[in-house]
C-alpha cells in the first residue's frame, strides 16, 4: 500500500503552477493560482492593508473566514473586498483601504 504524501501540497493533490504578478500599493508581488489576497500578502510579510475610520489604526486579517470584515482592501478600485476570501487574479492592483474606502478628502 502506497503511503500518502506527507507535504501539504501532496495531501491535497495540489499542483501549483507558476505564480503570477499583482501589486500592493505599487509594490510588485506574486500570488499562486487560487491563493487568497490575505495569504498572498502574508506570504510577502504584509500584515496590514486597511486603516480604521476613526483613528486610522492598521488592520489586516483577523478571523480568516469572511466574518469579521477586518481584512477589507481595495482591489482594482473596488473597496470593501474581503482579502481572506478574494483570490488574487493576475495583474490585480490592490491598495490599502483607508476608512470606508469611499471617503472623499475634505
Ligand atoms: S479576516 Fe475576517 S472577514 Fe476576512
From TrEMBL:
InterPro entries: 2Fe-2S-bd_N, 2Fe-2S_ferredoxin-like_sf
UniProt entry tagged with the keyword Chloroplast: no
Entries under Pfam families matching the protein: Fer2_4
An example molecular function term from Gene Ontology annotations: iron-sulfur cluster binding
Entry keyword set: Oxidoreductase
Entry superkingdom: Bacteria
Protein name: Proline dehydrogenase
Organism: Streptomyces kanasensis
Amino acid at each position: 500500500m502506497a503511503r500518502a504524501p506527507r507535504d501539504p501540497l501532496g495531501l491535497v493533490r495540489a499542483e501549483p503552477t507558476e505564480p503570477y504578478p499583482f501589486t500592493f500599493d505599487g509594490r510588485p508581488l506574486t500570488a499562486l493560482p487560487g491563493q487568497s489576497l490575505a495569504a498572498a500578502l502574508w506570504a510577502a510579510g504584509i500584515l496590514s492593508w486597511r486603516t480604521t475610520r476613526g483613528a486610522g489604526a492598521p488592520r489586516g486579517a483577523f478571523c480568516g473566514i469572511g466574518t469579521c470584515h477586518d481584512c477589507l482592501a481595495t482591489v482594482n478600485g473596488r473597496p470593501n473586498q474581503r482579502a481572506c476570501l478574494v483570490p488574487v487574479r493576475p495583474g490585480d492592483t490592490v491598495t490599502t483601504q483607508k476608512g470606508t474606502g469611499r471617503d472623499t478628502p475634505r
